[in-house]
Amino acid sequence: MTRIVLGIEYDGSAFFGWQWQDGGLRTVQAEVQKAASKVANHAVSVVCTGRTDTGVHALEQVVHFDTQAERSDHSWLMGINANLPGDVRVIWVQEAVADFHARYSAIARFYRYIILNRPTKSALQRDRVTWFHPHLDAQRMHQAAQALVGSHDFTSFRALKCQSLSPMRLMYFIDVYRQDEQVIMDISANAFLHHMVRNIAGVLMAIGSGEQAIEWTQELLAIKNRQKGGVTASPHGLYLGGVYYPEQYAMPKHQIFEKLPANAQRFTHGVIK
Question: Does the predicted model carry a pTM greater than 0.90?
Answer without folding.
Answer: yes
